[in-house]
What we know:
Blueprint: E1 21-23, H1 24-29, H2 32-48, E2 51-55, H3 62-75, H4 79-82, E3 93-95, E4 116-121, H5 129-135, H6 149-173, E5 190-197, H7 200-203, E6 213-216, E7 222-226, E8 234-238, E9 242-245, E10 253-257, H8 259-264, E11 274-276, E12 288-295, E13 302-303, E14 318-319, H9 320-331
Parallel strand pairs: 1-2
Antiparallel strand pairs: 2-10, 3-4, 4-5, 5-12, 6-11, 7-10, 7-12, 8-9, 8-11, 13-14
Amino acid sequence: MASSLRDTGGGGAGSGSPVPVIDLGPWRSGGPAVRARIAAEVDEALQAAGFLLVTGHGVDPALPARIRAAARTFFRLPAPVKEPYAVTVGGRGWLGPGAEANSYAEGTASPPDLKESWSWAADEPTGDPAVDAEWFRPNVWPAEVPGLRPPVEEYLTRMRALSDELLELLAGALGLGTDHFTRHTGHPTWGFNLNWYPGTEVLGPPLPGQFRIGAHTDFGTVTILDREPGAGGLQIHTDADGWQDAPYDPAALTVNIGDLLARWTGDRWRAGRHRVLPPPTDAPAEELVSLVYFYDCDPHTRVESLPEPIGRVRHEPVDSHAYLRAKLDAISVS
């Protein structure tokens, strides 16, 4: 059963939380003992919940604030203005109401997610026409909100660098060379969503079993989330505690690992299972905007489970992008 506690923005991850706050500063500059302590804490958290809160990331909070302000300008436009930008899951543009149902990634039927999104993705061609046509198409920007592009482009640059730094930390947490994962991110795919969660006056009251985002795990390596706390906010699932409101620290970014990285570790680490609650009955007009950066790896990387003693389950190797395409297709509402 979900916790009755509401994440209203106060406090960080409390004592006993399976989601620690990891300061990247000591990891960058600390000696062997400090780095070993951080590595052990990261390893434990990713075994339990698949989530971390990360501080010391270097992102000025004014940057996501600028993105949110511009995003709200777009999302509040009339539907006929937004419709020319409409795309399906995996496209570059506007995902309108009813476009996604993330629970289908787990094989669970549900009504569509209660949100709208604007999506960007990797757009620097590799030179391979087939790969570029599927994974590196040009991005689209809403002409009605010219102020959106500059802060998003700056944010994307920062997220790419931070994702590689996190993958180096994670390799270190497994006792591997720091480039164990990043040697597969020379020309990676990624996705970036601005998720708008309006109140019930926009999308109507939730149907039975309907969420802002249904229960799922992400599909790639690491996801970096800049979120707004809310009563209809993020929840995470652990075997020990079931569904609980996600801890929040205003100075932190929320990081979770996805299916590909969990497979890579032989299920030593779990992909962070999560959902976003619908607008609550006591705050039906609540409106939130999340910035979600999904990081993958180079197209068609062979993802092979690490053997024991690190790995615990030996999965069949997968082609990273055949796997990603199947997941994206699964959550698309036709």
